Amino acid sequence: MASSEEDTSNDGDMPPTAAAVAVGAHLLGFSDEILLHILSHVPSTDLVLNVRRTCRKLAVLCLDKSLTHTVLLQKDYEASEDKVKQLMKEIGREIQQLNMAGCYWLSGATIEHVARCRSLVKVNLSGCHLTSLRLSKMLSALQHLRSLAIDVSPGFDAGQLSGECKATLSRVRELKQTLYTPSYGVVPCCTSLEKLLLYFEILDRTREGAILSGQLMVGQSNVPHYQNLRVFYARLAPGYINQEVVRLYLAVLSDRTPENLHAFLISVPGSFAESGATKNLLDSMARNVALDALQLPKSWLNGSSLLQHMKFNNPFYFSFSRCTLSGGHLIQRVIDGAKELRSLASLNLSGCVHCLSPDSLLRKAEDDIDSGILETLVASCRNLRHLNLSAAHHHSSEGPGRHLCQLLARLRHLRSLSLPVCSVADSAPRSDRVPAMHAVPRGFGKKVRIGVQSCPNPFSGQAGPQPSSVFWSLLKNVPFLERLELIGSNFSSAMPRNEPAIRNSLPPCSRAQNVGDSEVAAIGQLAFLRHLTLAQLPSILTGSGLVSIGLQCQQLQSLSLANLGMMGKVVYMSALSDMLKHCKRLKDLRLEQPYFSANAQFFQALSQCSALQRLCLVSRSGTLQPEAVLAFMARCLHVVVCHMFTGESLATCKSLQQSLLRSFQAERPALNVVIFPLLHEGLTNVIRDVPMVHLDEITLFKSRVAEEPPNLWW
């Protein structure tokens, strides 16, 4: 155990208090193994630049290989330019894995210091500022690199890559490439690729209005080396240009399918017409390979017999999002007649409106599911950890043990789950229940007093979780759930990620009227819950269930609430204020609610979330108080992302945005502020005037459960 004389700080003339010495002595009395585990939760910059300088024992432990071999700077918003440069200088030679994804605030000159890390095997630079020349200089020094993630932005020129850089790329086995311009990027240089991940984020037009085309790639090297490929993954943002460019990447695959291909995944929003080349590719895959993971555009699967001919070998991921796949086909062609799929860890059936019914041609949205199909699915895939059934009407019929929630309760290994709101209702709508859109909650119109309990106790009366409800029983049987999404089957966000913004969305499903405050309160059972999304719950009367979540879900880190209760009024403001004071670990908050008033009372309550880092507010016809926003940012020192889209004028939004940047950017280098009017066309006008690179991942709404295979990348 270290003595007090080991203190090497500069404040030796200030003797520590007795309590401080006792605490320090007690902490340093732990074994090295326990201390290393504790230190593994400290950000790398603090570990090396601060903690290491406190005493001799920690100076040694902080440089342990278990802490310096892998450095995570992703979302470390306090990692300034100087800190990152000093970190690379002090432990650069020890780092073997480095994740700097999303460090948009660091300059290219700072990113260039990665070249100091000569032992790097894996590096993620997605979202970082890199030119072709800087990338070339950096990779030339990283001879041991085997895994790389980068962005390809307008102006990228593969011709500027040096011979040493290309030699490094020739040894890279895993490549993740995000494209913001039509380009092959560095793919043709990577002759040993085993895993290729492509993210297409190309806009159809430049900011000057010029129309882009995949023909810009003509003349570039177009010979990707796929012969050793095991994993091919492509995720496309909306737009015809992304489809045009991905076809050029697929052209080589259609000539010769890699014999070691184990995972083939293409995620496309909307329709993506099948071409002759892609048909040849799929036929070749059906003949020559056995897959572990599969995702195809819906237009390639709908009406085809492709699944019947595909071979699978211990599959761990399936995604049939938005496909017209019937329950009969799911059982016969995917599960192979109820064969046990112990290896299947993740299943995405979002938007598959017919996947739990035997005949897709005759089923209507309001018809009940076939519980026998779901029971077969659950029995065959009992090790599922991630399941997405959102964006569909899954109504259960009457009868003991036949409800969807009762059957899903058998999946004891679930860690993430996405369900439509109507699927958790106990029964069909009752005539004695007043629909929420016409109900007037108690206390409506009263002023909200922060810190005063102004809603019913979350554990009493109707607002408390009902042990007899099927949803309550489901959550009781999956206690280790970390991510939960309850999304209305007709919900349409004003700012969606992969779908067009719709001004007049469909009304909620009638069965969703049976899901209210008591069902929300049941979520409080999930002590390990980290991520929660609630969208389009029309029967929220007071929001009292939110208080239960705040009190009991102490691990909650991200919260997304959208269109709760009456659409014309925000009925849950009081409960939300009470909830927020308990959310001490909350880092991300997204609120989407028409007519939301972001006033001083709201921001005073939000200020109690001391760990908050990212805030997004989306409100058609909503208002905000600039003075309240400025005061909130002054109190919450860790907030770096502040995105607000309301009904305020463009002049008001610009003025507030400039004030925030002027007041806080110097002390928060990672500050990302977007304040913009949300007009009737929704996202369209935002993308036109705000660069997509400025829109944070929490800004655009999407379901995240089983969105990608587990452990696809870092």
Put simply, the count of helices is 24
- Could you list the spans in which at least 5 consecutive residues all have pLDDT below 50? 1-14, 17-23, 429-462
- CATH architecture descriptor text of the domain at 404-425 and 470-498 and 506-698: Alpha-Beta Horseshoe
Characterize the largest beta sheet: strand count, sense, and whether it forms a barrel.
Answer: 20 strands, parallel
| Full CATH superfamily name of the domain at 404-425 and 470-498 and 506-698 | Ribonuclease Inhibitor
Percent helix range: 25-40%
Number of strands: 22
Average pLDDT for all residues: 87
Give the N-terminus to C-terminus distance in angstroms: 36 Å
Q: Categorize the overall geometry.
A: globular
Broad CATH class of the domain at 404-425 and 470-498 and 506-698: Alpha Beta
Determine the strand fraction and express it as a percent band: 15-25%
Could you tell me the CATH topology label of the domain at 404-425 and 470-498 and 506-698: Leucine-rich repeat, LRR (right-handed beta-alpha superhelix)
* Cα-based radius of gyration, to the nearest Å: 27 Å
Q: Which structural class fits the helix and strand makeup?
A: alpha/beta
List keywords for this structure.
alpha/beta, two-stranded parallel sheet, 24 helices, disordered N terminus, FBXL18_LRR, F-box-like_dom_sf
Write the layout of secondary structure elements.
Blueprint: H1 18-28, H2 32-39, H3 44-49, H4 56-61, H5 65-68, E1 70-72, H6 81-91, E2 97-99, H7 108-111, E3 122-124, H8 132-140, E4 147-152, H9 163-170, E5 174-179, E6 195-200, E7 231-236, H10 240-255, E8 263-267, H11 276-288, E9 290-295, H12 298-301, H13 306-309, E10 311-319, H14 327-334, E11 346-348, H15 371-380, E12 386-388, H16 404-408, E13 416-420, H17 470-477, E14 483-487, H18 517-522, E15 531-537, H19 544-552, E16 558-564, H20 573-580, E17 588-592, E18 597-598, H21 600-606, E19 614-618, E20 623-624, H22 626-635, E21 641-646, H23 650-664, E22 672-677, H24 683-689
Parallel strand pairs: 1-2, 2-3, 3-4, 4-5, 5-6, 6-7, 7-8, 8-9, 9-10, 10-11, 11-12, 12-13, 13-14, 14-15, 15-16, 16-17, 17-19, 18-20, 19-21, 21-22
Helix pairs in contact: 8-9, 10-11, 19-20, 20-21, 21-22, 22-23
